[in-house]
Specification:
With about 300 residues, the protein is α/β, with parallel strands linked by helices. It is built from 11 helices and 15 strands.
Amino acid sequence: MKVAITGASGLIGTALVQHLRAEGHDVVRLVRRTAQAPDEVSWDPAAGTMDLDGLTGTEGVVNLSGAGVGDRRWTDPYKREILDSRIDSTHTIVTAITQLDPMPRVLVSASAIGFYGDTGNRAVDETAPAGQGFLADVVRAWEAASVPAATAGIRVANPRTGLVVSSRGGAWARMFPLFKWGLGGKLGPGSQYWSWISMRDEVRALQFLLEDDSLSGPVNLTAPLPVTNAEVTRVMGKVLGRPTILPAPAFALKAVLGEFSTEVLGSARVLPSALESAGFHFEDGTIESAIRAALAGS
């Protein structure tokens, strides 16, 4: 399959490009500059422009483009960038692929479990309604931007990804050094649920969405067993052989992270019902397996 990927230089995008090529797929990377390699296609999502010729023959598209949610403090301008970067990129890619003849068979347009807001101890799956908060509002708009592709006849899947366990980026890349130095500990009360997925299961699930014609709409990309932050802390200490006695109090997280602290301290107990019903098998079904895989470079 010829697959075009936006956000191909990001944490998940980089791993996905490598994985799909290893599986024999022809991958095209969308870049925000003049294309310099045979596998590159130029686009400018802010301007809404795309080199359509470079997408000729594309059968599947994976849209991963968007400003990092945890990269900077949530000022009003950066919150606008988080939203606009997702809407602009999705609108641009949808407009482009619906002009192709033939159109791609499938669009896998990224989403996030932020859709559900804070679920507390309540387990939710794809049938649950949207929650409250900034990220829930962003995700609703993000997914809505992909609807015109479905209206045009393209199968659209929206992978609502959880916390990706990786040593190469994201939350865990920041956590690993602290825990290795014996400075890791639970965040706030530690009772909040974290819905996670290993990097190798993330890219396998994205490939699954490209290839399985039965899946469309929201699909949770989270492992079957969400765990509390306290359990994450315990397992990190066990795997790394380090003490975990230095908790980060909630007031300190709020002072350092501002509004983003609500996502760190909030609870999301999200289940992958759609993936499991479709027959997807997780290689890392426990948080310990995922952490060990991340440390091994997976």
